[in-house]
Amino acid sequence: PETPEYLPQVKIICAWTASRYAGWAVDEVQTGAQGHLLATITEVFLQRLNDKNRRVQVSCGSALGELMETAGDLMAPYLKEIYIALVSAMSRYQGRSLVIVFDTLGIMAEYCGPV
Fold it and tell me: What is the pTM of this model?
């Protein structure tokens, strides 16, 4: 259960850490060592976009943008799911969280091409 008060902070730290290792994850996928890695990381970030904690939303949105920027065209198989999740988030988010959604959509358009 997600009852401990520190759990949102752990999610935030995990998102930040995963975004810093985006280059490594891309290398692992390109070498074939861990072909599923981008899918797994993307799935976790998309799940966390639905988190009720706004700081977790911001962190995972930013981390997803960093991952897309680093991975570029390797994210093509996941663009539809990412797009749906971000558009869905637009109706729920406010303030800084909403700015992150727009920023992430911009990164997706710039680095990953059209949806």
Answer: 0.89
Can you tell me the distance from the alpha carbon of 38 to that of 15, in angstroms, rounded to the nearest whole number? 14
Nearest to 47 by CA among 89, 77, 80, 103: 89
Q: How big is the CA angle at 63 (ends 16 and 97), to the nearest 5 degrees?
A: 105
Q: Quote the DSSP letter at residue 74.
A: G
Measured CA to CA, the distance from residue 113 to residue 61 in angstroms comes to 18
Cα angle: 10, vertex 12, 17; to 5 degrees: 95
- pLDDT single digits (tens) 4-43: 666 999 999 999 999 999 999 999 999 988 889 999 999 9
